Amino acid sequence: MYISYESLIIGIVTFILIIITIRSSKMRIKDAIFWIIWTITLSIFAFFPEATEWIQHITGVYNQEIYLFFLIIIFSYFLMLRHTTILSQHEDKIKEISQNIAISQLEQKKVNKEIMELLQYGNNK
Amino acid sequence: MMNKVLLIIPAYNEENNIEKVINGVIKTCPEYDYIIINDGSTDKTPEICRKNNYNFIDLPINTGIGIVVQAGFKYALYNGYDYAVQFDCDGQHFPNYIKPLIEKAKEGFNIVIGSRFINVKRGHNLRMVGSKILSCLIYLTTGRFIADPTSGMKVYDRVMLEYYAREINSAPEPDDLVYHLRRGKKVAEVQVMMGKRHAGLSYFNVVTGTLFIIYMSISILFIQTLRPKRK
User: Fold this and answer.
1) Higher pLDDT, residue A53 or A99
2) If you ran DSSP here, which 8-state letter would residue B93 be given?
3) Which residues of chain A make contact with B178, given a CB cutoff of 8 A?
4) Which of A65, A68, A91, B106 has its CA 20 to 30 Å from the CA of residue B132?
């Protein structure tokens, strides 16, 4: 039986790395799920040359080594897209939070000032 | 000895339900404290809370259910509560079932789930198929049968509170349940009734529901089973 050992090794090693990261509470499962799906697919594809041939036929990349690089580039491409989206959302959230903090601080200052004025008014009376 | 109990009520765009639900909670169980956590709603939810003088946390941005509930757990931890109840604001949960859940938790359970399907059979729709798949997966990985893993009405004790308040991967979802069952935490279910939403739309449709089930399945099968088992 033909097994693509390169795909299998990359898949399994990445899977183990991801699991170790999650076990030590350094990554959220939500963010890891993309990687888990990718590594499992890669490992399963290693056992099915038909699937590989099918993708090679569609993409026209027939060289085995280049094919693996090609797959990884496609994966990185979508990962980059996803990361750009997440990054934009995070920047938007940071902006939102800093604006909110600034407004609350201003309101807090106003309240403090009013309290001081009331205290002074009480002392003078 | 009286145990301090906190109801954690996440609210996201619930302007049509919130008053009804919170007034019901205050009327039915005045002995329990509650905290509403507004998850950056874009409608009148925070204004309604302020107007009625409800006890509420106002998150400035929309963060998602996991982080919202975690904010509630932090509040509960800092204020020395013994039990925290997750209670939805959309009118599906009835406050008269909180007491039986708390009584069950006092018997020494870490998590008590308000379950719809212990004595009642599930209906036949897409949502129930998803629920069944999750029940099967939980049974496969832990050997325990959880009748209603997606229920949003749960009671957590102090041990779980401390865990949830800090852990990065804490979300009140079915996959987390698997993790706790495998760690030897005690989980119980109590039969409750749930209603339909008063108003507004559920987050889940066919697409997001399917994605949720796929996400949960992968997480249960490949991630939760490989997380450390230490207590």
Assistant:
1) A99
2) B
3) none
4) B106
Burial of B16 (0-12, 13-18, 19+ CB in 10 A): middle
Q: Is 90 exceeded by the pLDDT of residue B92?
A: no
Task: Judge contact between A43 and A15, C-beta under 8 A.
Answer: yes
- CA nearest B178: which of B130, B227, B214? B227
Question: In this predicted structure, what is the pLDDT of residue B113?
Answer: 94
Give the pLDDT band of residue B65 (cuts 50, 70, 90): confident
What is the sign of the dihedral through the CA atoms of B6, B7, B11 and B15? negative
Residue B198 pLDDT level (bands cut at 50, 70, 90): low
Q: What is the mean pLDDT of residues B17-41?
A: 90
Residue A51, domain extent: 5-124
Q: Is the pLDDT of residue B1 over 60?
A: no
Strands of the sheet containing B187-191, edge to edge, are B56-59, B33-39, B5-11, B83-86, B154-157, B111-115, B187-191
Distance CA A96, CA B103 (A): 42
What residues pair up with B38 in beta bridges, in sequence order?
Answer: B11, B58
pLDDT tens for each residue of B165-174 = 888 887 888 8
Of A26, A27, A97, the CB nearest to B61: A97
Give per-residue pLDDT as tens, A85-121.
999 999 999 999 999 999 999 999 999 999 999 999 8
**Who among A19, A32, A100 is closest to B60 (CB)?**
A100
Nearest chain B residue (CA) to A20: B227
Contact (CB, 8 A) for B59 and B65: no
- Kindly state the tokens that stand for A116: 């001081």
Q: Are B125 and B82 in contact (CB under 8 A)?
A: no
Contacts of B171 in chain A (CB under 8 A): 30
Distance from CA of A94 to the nearest CA of B (A): 9
B220 secondary structure, DSSP code? I
Overall average pLDDT of the B105-114 stretch: 93
Tokens of B17: 């339900």
